[in-house]
Structure formats: C-alpha cells, structure tokens
Specification:
By secondary structure, this protein is mainly alpha-helical. The protein contains six helices and two strands. A two-stranded antiparallel ribbon has the order 1-2.
Length: about 170
C-alpha cells in the first residue's frame, strides 16, 4: 500500500485484528459496557465500520471517473493532516464524529464485525485495482481534512482505528 499507511499503529491489512482482537471471545455484555455518556466497544466498532464502508463505496463509485484535482484546504485541515496522516497522532477531542458516522444505541456485534470486514476487503480490492494508476487523481472528501487520496484514506483509517482501539481496551479493562 503506501509508505505512510503503517507506522507503529500497524498496517491497513491488520485493521480487523487490531479492532476485533481485544473483543475476541468476549461475552456480549463486554461489547456493550461503557461509562455513562461514552460509546461502548460495539458502538466504537460500528463507528469505524460506517467510516470504512462509506469511504470504500465512494472510491468504488469514482474509480472509473475522469481524473480529479484536489480542492484547496484550510490551514486547519492542513494542520490536522500533518498530525493525523504525517505523525500518526489522532488529537483527542479535536473533532466530533460526523453525523453519518455515529453509531446506533445497541449495535449487533456480529453485524458490525461483518460490515467492518466486508468494507475492509473492499478497500484492499480497490487498492489493488486503483493503485498506482489513480494514486494522485482520485479523491474522496473527509469532513475535516478535505480531499484525500485512497492511500491517504488508508492511512487515516489506520490512525483513526488505533485511536479508538485504545478506547475499546479501556472499556474492557477490569
């Protein structure tokens, strides 16, 4: 995939293990345990699955369209890109989850995992088909970072997932 896609967070290929490894073999009650006002591990996983699904579908829809040009980005978007994509650090509390990525009240764990794994596989297939041919002329907009390439989205999903896996681990701690 890309040179920036991994780092100490792991690689895109490892995302299902990163997200669902801590939940493997856990009872349903653990998937739905969280402090008041915080997302449960099932909700966190659903949030990640929604994001993977939406962006992979957008790239699939745009894959055969004519070349695109990246739109200009704000200084804040470039700064956020530096921290997230450049340093691999997801700033706590900088962003609220966009409306379309917020989880349901009590997601079904098996449905969430299936959606995540299916979307992850779609991204892997897209990377094989679209890269390197569409590396620099195909974009999907991120609500804060602006237009991102497929490789930048892969990197984002790695860093974003690692950020949320810390929360999952916290919820599961005794």
């Amino acid at each position: 995939m890309s040179r920036n896609e991994g780092s100490n967070h792991g690689s895109f290929e490892q995302l299902p293990d990163l997200v669902f490894g801590p939940l493997a073999g856990r009872p349903d009650a653990d998937w739905h345990r969280a402090p008041p006002g915080k997302w449960t591990p099932a909700q966190i996983a659903e949030h990640l699955a929604i994001g993977l699904d939406a962006t992979s579908r957008r790239f699939a829809e745009r894959g055969e369209r004519p070349p695109m040009t990246r739109r200009s980005r704000s200084a804040f978007a470039r700064l956020a890109e530096f921290f997230i994509l450049g340093l691999g650090w997801y700033p706590q509390g900088w962003f609220a989850a966009p409306e379309g990525t917020r989880p349901t009240a009590r997601p079904d764990a098996s449905a969430v995992e299936r959606k995540f794994r299916d979307s992850h596989a779609r991204f892997i297939d897209l990377a094989r088909t679209l890269l390197p041919r569409r590396r620099a002329d195909l974009f999907v907009k991120h609500p804060v970072l602006g237009d991102l390439t497929l490789e930048e989205w892969l990197r984002f999903h790695v860093v974003h997932s690692a950020h949320h896996v810390k929360q999952i681990r916290d919820r599961l701690a005794p």
